[in-house]
Design brief:
The complex is a heterodimer of chains A (284) and B (287). Helix content of chain A is 73%, strand content 0%. Chain A is built from eleven helices and no strands. The longest helix of chain A is centred in the first third of the chain and has 34 residues, at 73-106. Chain B is mainly α. Chain B has helices at 6-9, 14-45, 52-59, 61-94, 97-112, 115-126, 131-138, 152-176, 180-188, 193-221, 225-230, 238-249, 252-272, 274-277. In chain B, helix 4 packs across helix 10. Chain B is globular, with a radius of gyration of 24 Å. The two termini of chain B are 22 Å apart. The chains are: A mainly alpha (284), B mainly alpha (287). At the A-B interface, helix 1, helix 3, helix 4, helix 5 and helix 6 of A face helix 2, helix 4, helix 5, helix 6 and helix 10 of B.
């Protein structure tokens, strides 16, 4: 439309038929996409603002709030605790989840539907129910704030995602490969570790990254299971947002977002790469 | 691939399979089944044996209002997520190349970032000295800052934003399966855009809509972070009531009753509609 066009376009017969319906729909979709992205994106420039989060757009650039975070003992302790929990969750998920995925694909599970429901249980049941139930169980035992409670809860939350990722990769691997190794005298365990596992390593890694992020970002159960002394990073962030959002929070939020997005993007690319590799290789 | 007659003999038997899942079963018994059943026990065992905690929940109008408010906000969240999410899912299903990649990033980036980060952003946007109020008072549109934060509206916005990916992704799956030719064929036969949508697309996408709606609604019922940080203390929801009873009032049996009621409601709804949620088919339906 030229600049000299009259402001009321209705009166003018359009030379090219403009599909008003399609344009409106497109504008609507773009508006929703902006709504989706806005909160994630708005917090990043604020973390570099010299006057703190209250100012938008920021009037300058500083890394002061990042330094503040790294110098603060309490943030440090919370971050270290969250890393510990997340690594332990990944280890537990690997150890417990891999045999489950193998049994689902290669074994004969009795009562499979009931088993699936149990596996998905922690996703169906509200997290607050798991949080309160664990709190009421662990508090009298003095185990609130313990690594045991956090890792137990986070492993349950991570397992469905891990098992689903690994089981779907495993179901694509020809069982004959393992059978061949076993007929050559390898035990089932050795056949799994030397033949099957190398083929599904990308999916196992991908599932582990999922487990890490699920644990590291988990806010609800961490909120209830944290003690006064031992608080996870999400719990500290919760308190900070609740009381008086301090200027270092956008800096923490930015780092956390970069970390989770990078890890989950890695998980996504790993599974896709594995799928491509499988499709490229002619099946024997 | 060869048809494996011999390899079936090499398959793992029921006993071996049971052994492999044993650690998982122990973990779930310890962290899931026992704590939840004990919670249920506590809710009927104290202060005296019976349903007194549940009676209180039903009979005191304060708590009935909390339940109704929670159900209403969860329902409104699901409706809003559907209205906002459907066109995006449609667009995503029909886009290709760079457009598809950009839309996917817009949907996945918030999905992949922490709920706490997004909630913090909403407090900054909606706060008394937040972005919206600064813009409004700065431009002279309003003299006093508006109360946007700590309201039901803030909870609704924050929760919709947090849960909308759970609507868009199943819808995308359903809509992607509709061949373009089907729409074109209907249009060639003289069907208008509305007719194509109502008579062809909606029936095919129905399962995806129900799935997305259920996941958002059920998750919203028990979603803790958003009501706790964006909601009003005067207008409690189930989750904030539970938190108060557990951590401040220390009435654990009553908290156990509220949580049990919420969990039972979620589990009953989920099992009534289990074919849409397909929990038993997630792992591949090998019977």
């Amino acid at each position: 439309m030229s600049a000299s066009a009259p402001p009321v376009a209705v009166a003018r017969p359009p030379a090219v038929k403009v599909d008003a319906g399609a344009l409106t729909a497109r504008a609507y979709v773009y508006a929703v996409l902006v709504f989706l992205l806005l909160p994630t994106l708005i917090i990043i420039p604020m973390s570099f603002s010299p006057k703190g989060y209250l100012e938008f757009p920021p009037s300058g650039f500083t890394l002061h709030w990042y330094a503040e975070f790294f110098e603060d003992r309490r943030w440090q302790a919370a971050t270290v605790l969250s890393f510990k929990i997340a690594f332990a969750t990944v280890a537990a998920t690997l150890l417990v989840g891999t045999p489950v995925a193998y049994a689902i694909v290669r074994g004969r599970l009795l009562m499979k539907p009931a088993f699936s429901v149990l596996l998905m249980g922690p996703i169906i049941v509200p997290h607050i129910a798991i949080a309160v139930a664990l709190y009421l169980w662990l508090a009298p035992l003095g185990l609130v704030g313990s690594l045991f409670g956090f890792v137990l809860a986070h492993t349950m939350l991570a397992l469905p995602f891990f098992v689903f990722t690994v089981a779907s990769a495993l179901s694509q691997i020809d069982q004959e490969l393992e059978a061949a190794a076993m007929s050559c005298g390898a035990s089932r365990l050795r056949a799994f570790f030397e033949v099957t596992l190398p083929l599904i390593t990308p999916s196992v890694l991908s599932g582990s990254l999922f487990a890490f992020v699920i644990s590291f970002d988990e806010p609800t159960i961490s909120f209830f299971l944290s003690s006064i002394r031992d608080r996870t990073l999400p719990r500290r962030m919760f308190e900070n947002i609740e009381h008086s959002l301090t200027p270092e929070l956008p800096a923490i939020a930015t780092m956390l977002t970069v970390l989770s997005v990078a890890l989950l993007l890695g998980a996504f690319l790993l599974t896709r790469w594995e799928k491509r590799r499988r499709q490229a290789a002619p099946s024997s | 691939m060869s048809a494996g007659g011999a390899s079936n003999a090499k398959g793992l038997g029921a006993a071996g399979s049971a052994l492999l899942v044993a650690p998982f079963l122990i973990l779930m018994a310890l962290g899931f089944l026992y704590p939840l059943l004990d919670l249920l026990r506590l809710s009927v065992a104290e202060p005296e044996l019976g349903l007194s905690n549940y009676q209180r929940l039903v009979e005191e109008p304060v708590y009935a209002r909390v339940f109704l408010r929670t159900v209403w906000i969860a329902f409104a969240t699901a409706v809003l997520a559907l209205i906002l999410g459907f066109p995006v899912a449609w667009f995503m299903a029909r886009a290709s190349g760079w457009t598809a990649a950009i839309v996917a990033i817009c949907v996945l980036l918030p999905f992949w970032s922490s709920v706490l980060v997004r909630t913090a952003a909403w407090t900054i946007i909606l706060g008394r000295e937040g972005i919206i109020n600064t813009a409004l008072t700065g431009s002279g549109l309003t003299r006093q800052p508006l109360t946007l934060l700590y309201t039901q509206g803030a909870v609704l916005i924050g929760m919709t934003h947090a849960l909308i990916p759970f609507m868009i992704l199943p819808l995308y799956g359903a809509l992607r399966a509709i061949p373009r030719d089907l729409e074109r064929a209907a249009q060639v036969m003289g069907a208008g855009r509305v007719a194509v949508f109502v008579e062809i697309i909606l029936p095919i996408a129905r399962a995806g809509i129900v799935t997305g709606f259920l996941i958002v609604f059920l998750t919203a019922l028990g979603f803790f972070i958003t009501p706790a940080l964006l909601g009003s203390p005067q207008e409690q929801m189930i989750v904030t009531l539970v938190s108060q009873q557990v951590r401040e009032v220390l009435d654990w049996p009553f908290a156990a009753a509220i949580v049990s009621a919420l969990t039972l409601a979620v589990v009953v709804i989920a099992s009534l509609f289990s074919r849409y949620l397909a929990f038993d088919r997630v792992l591949g339906g090998r019977s």
